[in-house]
Amino acid sequence: MPSKGQIFVRVPTVSAALTLLLVATPATASTHTGNPAPTPSAQTAELRNDADIGLPSRYIVPGQRAYPGGLAYDRATDQFFTGSTQEGTLYVGTPGRERMQVWLRGGVDGRTTTSGIISDDQGRLYVGGGPTNRVWIYDIRSRRLLATVSGVPGGFVNDITIAEDGTAYATDSLGHLIYRISERDGRWSMHPWLDLDGTPVEHVDGHNLNGIIAVDGDNLIAVHSQSGKLYRFDRTSKEIHQVDLGGAFLYGGDGLVRHDGRLYVVRGGLSPQNPQPQVSVLRPSEDWSAAEVESVINSDFLHPSTARVVRGRLLVVNSQYNTGQTGGQPELPFSISAIPLG
Questions:
Q1: What pTM did the predictor assign?
Q2: Each residue of 147-167: pLDDT tens digit?
Q3: 110: which of 1, 26, 145, 199 is 20 to 30 A away, CA to CA?
Protein backbone atom coordinates (compact mmCIF):
# COMPACT_ATOMS: atom_id res chain seq x y z
CA MET A 1 0.00 0.00 0.00
CA PRO A 2 1.32 3.52 -0.75
CA SER A 3 2.42 5.58 2.20
CA LYS A 4 0.57 8.80 3.02
CA GLY A 5 1.53 11.68 0.75
CA GLN A 6 3.38 9.56 -1.82
CA ILE A 7 3.19 10.70 -5.44
CA PHE A 8 2.91 8.35 -8.40
CA VAL A 9 3.96 9.46 -11.85
CA ARG A 10 5.69 7.82 -14.79
CA VAL A 11 8.62 10.18 -14.53
CA PRO A 12 11.00 10.57 -11.57
CA THR A 13 10.07 13.12 -8.94
CA VAL A 14 12.19 15.04 -6.52
CA SER A 15 11.64 14.45 -2.82
CA ALA A 16 10.83 17.43 -0.64
CA ALA A 17 13.77 18.93 1.19
CA LEU A 18 13.86 20.10 4.80
CA THR A 19 11.64 23.03 5.65
CA LEU A 20 13.39 26.38 5.52
CA LEU A 21 13.07 28.23 8.84
CA LEU A 22 12.61 31.96 8.55
CA VAL A 23 12.13 34.62 11.18
CA ALA A 24 9.05 36.58 10.16
CA THR A 25 8.92 40.29 10.83
CA PRO A 26 5.70 41.57 12.41
CA ALA A 27 3.18 42.74 9.83
CA THR A 28 1.82 46.24 10.09
CA ALA A 29 -1.76 47.10 9.28
CA SER A 30 -2.77 48.92 6.12
CA THR A 31 -4.51 52.18 6.96
CA HIS A 32 -7.08 51.90 4.18
CA THR A 33 -8.02 48.21 4.42
CA GLY A 34 -7.23 47.11 7.97
CA ASN A 35 -5.27 44.18 6.54
CA PRO A 36 -1.62 43.20 7.02
CA ALA A 37 0.84 45.12 4.87
CA PRO A 38 2.48 43.29 1.94
CA THR A 39 5.60 41.23 2.56
CA PRO A 40 8.73 43.44 2.60
CA SER A 41 10.63 43.31 -0.67
CA ALA A 42 13.94 42.67 1.11
CA GLN A 43 12.58 39.46 2.57
CA THR A 44 11.33 38.39 -0.86
CA ALA A 45 14.77 39.00 -2.34
CA GLU A 46 16.31 36.85 0.39
CA LEU A 47 14.00 33.95 -0.43
CA ARG A 48 14.97 34.10 -4.09
CA ASN A 49 18.52 33.14 -3.18
CA ASP A 50 17.59 29.83 -1.53
CA ALA A 51 17.93 27.84 -4.79
CA ASP A 52 14.52 26.31 -4.06
CA ILE A 53 16.01 24.09 -1.34
CA GLY A 54 14.01 23.59 1.82
CA LEU A 55 10.74 25.12 0.64
CA PRO A 56 7.60 23.97 2.47
CA SER A 57 5.84 20.89 1.12
CA ARG A 58 2.49 22.62 1.71
CA TYR A 59 1.10 26.06 2.41
CA ILE A 60 -1.50 26.69 5.11
CA VAL A 61 -4.56 28.81 4.33
CA PRO A 62 -5.83 30.24 7.64
CA GLY A 63 -9.48 30.23 8.62
CA GLN A 64 -12.09 27.74 9.77
CA ARG A 65 -14.19 28.20 6.62
CA ALA A 66 -11.62 29.24 4.02
CA TYR A 67 -12.41 26.56 1.43
CA PRO A 68 -9.84 27.99 -1.02
CA GLY A 69 -10.60 27.88 -4.73
CA GLY A 70 -8.52 29.79 -7.28
CA LEU A 71 -4.78 30.41 -7.41
CA ALA A 72 -2.64 33.12 -9.01
CA TYR A 73 1.11 33.73 -9.03
CA ASP A 74 2.69 37.14 -9.55
CA ARG A 75 6.32 36.81 -10.64
CA ALA A 76 7.15 40.47 -10.06
CA THR A 77 6.45 40.23 -6.32
CA ASP A 78 7.07 36.47 -5.98
CA GLN A 79 3.70 36.08 -4.29
CA PHE A 80 0.79 33.71 -4.84
CA PHE A 81 -2.86 34.32 -4.04
CA THR A 82 -5.92 32.23 -3.27
CA GLY A 83 -9.46 33.10 -2.25
CA SER A 84 -12.19 31.75 0.00
CA THR A 85 -15.18 30.32 -1.83
CA GLN A 86 -17.25 30.62 1.34
CA GLU A 87 -16.36 34.09 2.65
CA GLY A 88 -14.61 35.95 -0.16
CA THR A 89 -11.38 36.50 1.77
CA LEU A 90 -8.22 36.82 -0.35
CA TYR A 91 -4.96 35.35 0.94
CA VAL A 92 -1.34 35.94 -0.04
CA GLY A 93 1.70 33.72 0.38
CA THR A 94 5.39 33.57 -0.52
CA PRO A 95 7.30 30.41 -1.56
CA GLY A 96 9.53 30.37 1.54
CA ARG A 97 6.84 30.81 4.19
CA GLU A 98 4.44 27.99 5.10
CA ARG A 99 1.55 30.09 6.39
CA MET A 100 -0.38 32.41 4.10
CA GLN A 101 -1.81 35.74 5.32
CA VAL A 102 -5.01 37.68 4.76
CA TRP A 103 -4.58 40.07 1.82
CA LEU A 104 -8.14 41.47 1.68
CA ARG A 105 -10.88 40.49 4.07
CA GLY A 106 -14.13 38.91 2.92
CA GLY A 107 -16.97 41.32 2.29
CA VAL A 108 -14.68 44.12 1.08
CA ASP A 109 -15.92 45.51 -2.26
CA GLY A 110 -18.93 43.18 -2.04
CA ARG A 111 -16.71 40.11 -2.38
CA THR A 112 -18.51 37.34 -0.48
CA THR A 113 -17.12 34.43 -2.51
CA THR A 114 -14.38 33.77 -5.07
CA SER A 115 -13.72 31.38 -7.96
CA GLY A 116 -10.90 31.58 -10.53
CA ILE A 117 -8.00 33.96 -9.82
CA ILE A 118 -5.20 35.07 -12.15
CA SER A 119 -2.63 37.87 -12.42
CA ASP A 120 -1.32 39.61 -15.53
CA ASP A 121 2.04 41.16 -16.44
CA GLN A 122 0.69 44.61 -15.56
CA GLY A 123 0.55 43.80 -11.86
CA ARG A 124 -3.20 43.27 -11.75
CA LEU A 125 -5.14 40.52 -10.00
CA TYR A 126 -8.41 39.25 -11.50
CA VAL A 127 -10.77 37.61 -9.00
CA GLY A 128 -13.82 35.67 -10.19
CA GLY A 129 -16.98 35.86 -8.15
CA GLY A 130 -18.67 32.53 -8.90
CA PRO A 131 -22.45 32.79 -8.39
CA THR A 132 -22.28 36.58 -7.91
CA ASN A 133 -21.20 36.60 -11.57
CA ARG A 134 -18.68 39.38 -10.97
CA VAL A 135 -14.99 39.87 -11.57
CA TRP A 136 -12.94 42.20 -9.39
CA ILE A 137 -9.66 43.63 -10.72
CA TYR A 138 -7.07 44.81 -8.18
CA ASP A 139 -3.68 46.48 -8.34
CA ILE A 140 -1.40 43.97 -6.60
CA ARG A 141 1.11 46.40 -5.08
CA SER A 142 -1.43 48.86 -3.66
CA ARG A 143 -4.37 46.45 -3.26
CA ARG A 144 -6.54 49.15 -4.79
CA LEU A 145 -9.73 48.08 -6.57
CA LEU A 146 -9.44 49.09 -10.22
CA ALA A 147 -12.81 47.85 -11.45
CA THR A 148 -15.75 45.53 -10.87
CA VAL A 149 -17.41 44.04 -13.94
CA SER A 150 -20.45 41.76 -14.16
CA GLY A 151 -21.76 39.03 -16.44
CA VAL A 152 -25.29 37.99 -17.37
CA PRO A 153 -27.88 37.41 -14.61
CA GLY A 154 -27.98 33.90 -13.23
CA GLY A 155 -24.53 32.97 -14.43
CA PHE A 156 -21.45 31.61 -12.64
CA VAL A 157 -18.09 33.18 -13.48
CA ASN A 158 -15.70 30.30 -12.99
CA ASP A 159 -12.15 30.30 -14.38
CA ILE A 160 -10.20 33.18 -15.97
CA THR A 161 -7.25 33.24 -18.38
CA ILE A 162 -5.26 36.02 -20.02
CA ALA A 163 -4.13 35.90 -23.66
CA GLU A 164 -0.82 37.20 -24.99
CA ASP A 165 -2.36 40.55 -25.96
CA GLY A 166 -3.66 41.12 -22.42
CA THR A 167 -7.29 40.26 -23.13
CA ALA A 168 -8.92 38.18 -20.39
CA TYR A 169 -11.46 35.41 -20.98
CA ALA A 170 -13.71 33.79 -18.38
CA THR A 171 -15.99 30.76 -18.43
CA ASP A 172 -19.58 31.02 -17.28
CA SER A 173 -20.36 27.48 -16.15
CA LEU A 174 -24.11 28.05 -15.78
CA GLY A 175 -24.69 30.70 -18.46
CA HIS A 176 -22.92 28.39 -20.96
CA LEU A 177 -20.76 31.07 -22.53
CA ILE A 178 -17.30 32.62 -22.50
CA TYR A 179 -16.77 36.27 -21.54
CA ARG A 180 -14.21 38.72 -22.85
CA ILE A 181 -12.78 41.19 -20.31
CA SER A 182 -10.77 44.16 -21.51
CA GLU A 183 -9.59 47.62 -20.53
CA ARG A 184 -9.26 50.75 -22.64
CA ASP A 185 -8.19 54.13 -21.31
CA GLY A 186 -8.94 53.02 -17.78
CA ARG A 187 -12.45 51.81 -18.59
CA TRP A 188 -13.18 48.12 -18.11
CA SER A 189 -15.78 45.98 -19.86
CA MET A 190 -17.00 42.39 -19.65
CA HIS A 191 -19.22 41.07 -22.44
CA PRO A 192 -20.23 37.64 -23.77
CA TRP A 193 -17.60 36.68 -26.34
CA LEU A 194 -18.98 33.30 -27.39
CA ASP A 195 -22.45 31.87 -26.76
CA LEU A 196 -22.05 28.09 -26.57
CA ASP A 197 -25.68 27.17 -27.18
CA GLY A 198 -26.00 25.29 -30.44
CA THR A 199 -22.27 24.47 -30.56
CA PRO A 200 -20.50 21.11 -30.09
CA VAL A 201 -19.98 21.99 -26.41
CA GLU A 202 -22.63 20.14 -24.37
CA HIS A 203 -25.05 22.10 -22.20
CA VAL A 204 -26.04 19.95 -19.22
CA ASP A 205 -27.67 20.62 -15.86
CA GLY A 206 -25.13 21.99 -13.42
CA HIS A 207 -21.65 23.18 -14.34
CA ASN A 208 -20.42 22.96 -17.91
CA LEU A 209 -17.16 24.56 -19.09
CA ASN A 210 -14.80 25.08 -16.20
CA GLY A 211 -11.03 25.58 -16.50
CA ILE A 212 -9.77 27.73 -19.36
CA ILE A 213 -6.27 28.67 -20.53
CA ALA A 214 -4.75 30.65 -23.41
CA VAL A 215 -2.14 28.34 -24.94
CA ASP A 216 -0.81 30.64 -27.65
CA GLY A 217 -1.74 33.84 -29.48
CA ASP A 218 -4.58 32.15 -31.34
CA ASN A 219 -6.21 29.50 -29.17
CA LEU A 220 -7.98 28.95 -25.89
CA ILE A 221 -8.34 25.49 -24.30
CA ALA A 222 -11.19 24.68 -21.91
CA VAL A 223 -12.37 21.55 -20.11
CA HIS A 224 -15.96 20.45 -19.58
CA SER A 225 -16.22 19.09 -16.04
CA GLN A 226 -19.14 16.74 -16.57
CA SER A 227 -18.47 15.37 -20.05
CA GLY A 228 -14.72 15.14 -19.45
CA LYS A 229 -14.02 16.61 -22.89
CA LEU A 230 -11.40 19.17 -23.86
CA TYR A 231 -12.10 21.90 -26.42
CA ARG A 232 -10.01 24.31 -28.48
CA PHE A 233 -11.40 27.77 -29.33
CA ASP A 234 -9.95 29.91 -32.11
CA ARG A 235 -9.84 33.50 -30.82
CA THR A 236 -10.16 34.97 -34.33
CA SER A 237 -12.73 32.78 -36.05
CA LYS A 238 -14.42 31.51 -32.85
CA GLU A 239 -14.35 28.02 -34.33
CA ILE A 240 -14.62 25.20 -31.80
CA HIS A 241 -12.80 21.88 -32.07
CA GLN A 242 -12.87 18.99 -29.63
CA VAL A 243 -9.36 17.91 -28.70
CA ASP A 244 -8.79 14.23 -29.47
CA LEU A 245 -7.82 12.55 -26.20
CA GLY A 246 -7.53 9.07 -27.70
CA GLY A 247 -10.60 7.81 -25.90
CA ALA A 248 -9.70 9.29 -22.51
CA PHE A 249 -12.02 11.56 -20.54
CA LEU A 250 -11.13 14.25 -18.01
CA TYR A 251 -14.13 13.88 -15.71
CA GLY A 252 -14.13 16.45 -12.93
CA GLY A 253 -11.69 18.63 -14.89
CA ASP A 254 -11.16 22.00 -13.23
CA GLY A 255 -8.06 24.20 -13.30
CA LEU A 256 -5.61 24.01 -16.24
CA VAL A 257 -1.88 24.72 -16.16
CA ARG A 258 0.53 24.80 -19.10
CA HIS A 259 4.20 24.11 -18.35
CA ASP A 260 7.19 22.65 -20.17
CA GLY A 261 5.18 21.42 -23.15
CA ARG A 262 2.54 19.75 -21.03
CA LEU A 263 -1.00 20.55 -19.90
CA TYR A 264 -1.83 19.78 -16.27
CA VAL A 265 -5.54 19.14 -15.64
CA VAL A 266 -6.63 19.32 -12.00
CA ARG A 267 -9.49 16.88 -11.31
CA GLY A 268 -11.44 17.11 -8.08
CA GLY A 269 -12.60 13.51 -8.05
CA LEU A 270 -15.32 12.11 -5.77
CA SER A 271 -17.64 11.25 -8.66
CA PRO A 272 -18.50 7.84 -10.14
CA GLN A 273 -16.51 8.63 -13.29
CA ASN A 274 -13.54 10.08 -11.40
CA PRO A 275 -13.40 8.77 -7.82
CA GLN A 276 -9.70 9.53 -7.33
CA PRO A 277 -8.60 13.19 -6.89
CA GLN A 278 -5.65 13.70 -9.21
CA VAL A 279 -3.79 15.84 -11.71
CA SER A 280 -3.72 14.41 -15.23
CA VAL A 281 -0.61 15.34 -17.22
CA LEU A 282 -1.24 15.68 -20.97
CA ARG A 283 1.20 16.04 -23.82
CA PRO A 284 -0.58 17.99 -26.58
CA SER A 285 0.16 18.00 -30.28
CA GLU A 286 1.72 21.13 -31.74
CA ASP A 287 -1.60 22.43 -33.11
CA TRP A 288 -3.61 21.33 -30.05
CA SER A 289 -5.84 19.08 -32.15
CA ALA A 290 -4.95 16.10 -29.95
CA ALA A 291 -3.43 15.32 -26.57
CA GLU A 292 -2.24 12.17 -24.85
CA VAL A 293 -2.55 11.49 -21.12
CA GLU A 294 1.11 10.98 -20.34
CA SER A 295 0.95 10.46 -16.57
CA VAL A 296 -1.13 11.03 -13.46
CA ILE A 297 -0.13 12.70 -10.20
CA ASN A 298 -1.80 11.13 -7.15
CA SER A 299 -1.27 12.59 -3.71
CA ASP A 300 -3.31 13.25 -0.58
CA PHE A 301 -5.35 15.85 -2.44
CA LEU A 302 -8.58 17.02 -0.81
CA HIS A 303 -10.88 17.76 -3.75
CA PRO A 304 -8.25 19.82 -5.63
CA SER A 305 -9.55 22.75 -7.66
CA THR A 306 -6.67 24.36 -9.54
CA ALA A 307 -2.90 24.83 -9.64
CA ARG A 308 0.01 27.05 -10.70
CA VAL A 309 3.68 26.38 -11.31
CA VAL A 310 5.81 28.31 -8.81
CA ARG A 311 9.60 27.87 -8.77
CA GLY A 312 9.48 24.56 -10.59
CA ARG A 313 6.83 23.06 -8.33
CA LEU A 314 3.13 22.53 -8.94
CA LEU A 315 1.07 24.21 -6.23
CA VAL A 316 -2.31 22.44 -6.01
CA VAL A 317 -5.22 23.97 -4.07
CA ASN A 318 -7.04 21.56 -1.74
CA SER A 319 -10.44 23.20 -1.97
CA GLN A 320 -12.50 20.62 -0.03
CA TYR A 321 -15.47 21.79 -2.11
CA ASN A 322 -17.23 18.52 -1.40
CA THR A 323 -17.23 19.13 2.36
CA GLY A 324 -18.26 22.76 2.00
CA GLN A 325 -21.21 21.90 -0.21
CA THR A 326 -22.55 19.17 2.08
CA GLY A 327 -22.05 21.02 5.37
CA GLY A 328 -19.54 18.46 6.64
CA GLN A 329 -16.48 19.10 8.77
CA PRO A 330 -13.39 20.09 6.74
CA GLU A 331 -9.95 18.71 7.44
CA LEU A 332 -8.05 21.59 9.02
CA PRO A 333 -5.93 23.43 8.27
CA PHE A 334 -6.88 24.21 4.68
CA SER A 335 -3.82 23.85 2.50
CA ILE A 336 -2.10 24.11 -0.86
CA SER A 337 0.09 21.12 -1.77
CA ALA A 338 3.51 21.68 -3.37
CA ILE A 339 4.43 18.92 -5.85
CA PRO A 340 8.01 18.82 -7.26
CA LEU A 341 8.03 18.45 -11.04
CA GLY A 342 10.44 15.84 -12.37
A1: 0.85
A2: 999 999 999 999 999 999 999
A3: 26
